[in-house]
């Protein structure tokens, strides 16, 4: 079993990724860390706890950054994509469980030092928690086994604007800090995630068991698909961004990678752009191809 710290900004596809990871025997999720992104960090924490209750798992949750690496507030939340509170438009009661008191970056540092060269961090929100952890304790850089990031758009257009993907543009300085740190990094960006379409036709059967969990996931995924349909009429599905990062942690043969040096543009019109170049000293594995059908089948067998 791979020990995992899972950094989330829960969000609908984060919730799907959580369920997929928690139902995968190859992974042992030690803890979830939360960050602002799809929603403010307190909402990301609440949503993470709520999802854990729905799937009936007790895993500790550590709240992290509320602001960017440079201390800025995020101003626009993508409510049209993830809904008012981040999990679609259905009513979700407040979780009974609570987050731990330790700050997420400190939890990351502590765990990595406790288990050197063992821990994989899957990060599917802005990279602020990881950047803060590295800044405070750069000695963890060689001790992290791997960081698998859902983020970026290297050879394809962005999803926020023509250049940038949502996680990276939410905190470009943090992303640049992590990418240039030398940490062992795999980038699962829009280059591959936009090829993983979950068709609307597949989620109806989640409701057939009549259980609350199935309705919960089907309702919010339908909301998410609705947002894709508004932006891309006729698409009838949604991209499995965050679940693919989990898929890569389970089985890296779902993707093909190219080793590149990745720089993140931090200012100007192209802020948030991930620029990849093939250089001799490059270390970042950028996913460039995906076996989308095999991944989708694997995801669907496990998620609910
Ligand atoms: C990423 O942005 C968020 O909206 C999703 O949760 C995903 O992590 C996709 O660009
Ligand atoms: Ca996310």
Describe this structure in words.
The protein has 304 residues and is an alpha/beta fold. The chain has a single domain (2-302), classed as Inosine-uridine Nucleoside N-ribohydrolase, Chain A (Alpha-Beta Complex). It contains 11 helices and 11 strands. It has helices at residues 12-22, 41-54, 79-82, 104-114, 128-136, 166-170, 172-179, 190-193, 212-231, 241-250, 292-302, and strands at residues 2-8, 27-34, 61-63, 120-123, 146-150, 185-188, 197-199, 237-239, 255-264, 274-277, 284-290. The strands form 2 sheets. The chain has a 9-stranded mixed beta sheet, sandwiched between helices. Helix 4 (104-114) crosses helix 5 (128-136). The longest helix has 20 residues, at 212-231. The protein is globular, with a radius of gyration of 18 Å. The mean pLDDT is 96. The site of beta-D-ribofuranose has 14 residues, from helix 1, helix 6 and helix 10.
